[in-house]
Write a structure and sequence with these properties.
Radius of gyration: 25 Å
Order of helices and strands: HHEHEHHEHEHEHHHHHHHEHHEEHHHHH
Number of helices: 21
CATH class of the largest domain: Alpha Beta
Oligomer: single chain
Distance between the termini: 51 Å
Strand order of the largest sheet: 2-3-4-1-5
Shape: globular
Number of strands: 8
CATH topology of the largest domain: Rossmann fold
Largest sheet: 5 strands, parallel
Structural class: alpha/beta
Length: 402
Amino acid sequence: MIYSCMKYSLAENHSGTRYKVPPLHHIIPRIHLLSYLKKRKDRKVFLIVGRAGQGKSALAADFLTRNRLQYTWLNLTGEERDPKLLLECIVRGLTGKILGKNSSPAQPPLLGTVLNIIQEQTEGDHFIVFDNFQRVKSSREIGEQVEQLIALLPDRLHLIILSREYPHLSLTKLRIVRDLVELRSDDLAFTEEEIHTLMQSQCQINLNRAQMTGITGVCEDWVTAFISLIELLDSRPQSERNHLIERFIEQRKLPALDAFIEEEVFNPLSEIEKAVLTRLAGYNSIQALLATRLIGEDGVTVLKKLIERNILLRWVDESLTIFSFHPIFATFLVEKFQALPANEQTELHRRAAFYFQDYGDRDEAIHYFILSGEYGKARDIFQEIAEDSLEQHKYDKIHELL
């Protein structure tokens, strides 16, 4: 059985779903990760950071459920940027009551009072889970509140933070005293052994080396991409499955993933962020100089911030300021680019052509001059390459260009 990493139902302003745990039916047990967490379950803080659809919530819920651990699960909506509301939510999750409802809102509950209530309402070890912590990450007050909470947690109380972005918290001391467990996107990625097992158990397919290389090359470390592919294969006849794998490797897309990216990754972005990503679509890697030529220096600043937020974008070489999109996200963005007005597409291709010409990449310059309709310039560069190749007896180069 498998689970979907797609977003589970959250009604952000409804108290009944603020405390809702992700469903655990149809899950893929991450045995090695569950074992890793179980061995460290006595530690004070667990920090699991990964991009959307990386299985953070499902892993944490499975860990708590399998080990029969007590927990209070809080789905952060963004409203809890006010520290007093965060404390109210913790208490309400435990007791079902609003703390201090007979007192004035100007008199928020003290952290010590909340910790006393938690200890009174629980027995043995208890875990407080902050899911979607990235929604309150920008609040300095929340950061200070959580740091105080960590400092004051009794030994039997533990905190699990699930976030798409690394939180602004001081965790150095916890690392030094080995009281922190950290998992990131690379840790959450499926191993080759897991992929083989899933394909065999769910789809009755034994992947050959080329298929494994192709699938991992397209999905990289994104758990939802693997699961979406497996769910598609599982729903189709055995005779079609190898063909579907080859098509997925070639096209680098699935309808379910397009829908997920649209809802969970692209739509929450600002209009400026959407514009920057769309106008950089189609490049295997993006140097800061190319990005500046295409969209201006402000666009590079936007890209750096998006990487920090764990969008489907990563550093290829941070020292050289080279970025790369996740392959499936790149395909998604190309379709957004193709929806731009034709004159804007042409202008972006023209800027790219001149950039590659200026930096000596004549092959790419020809490609983008052709896309921009500047056939004369493409012909001139082709002629230069042909003449150089003839002089150096590099006839294969001329054949390659043709």
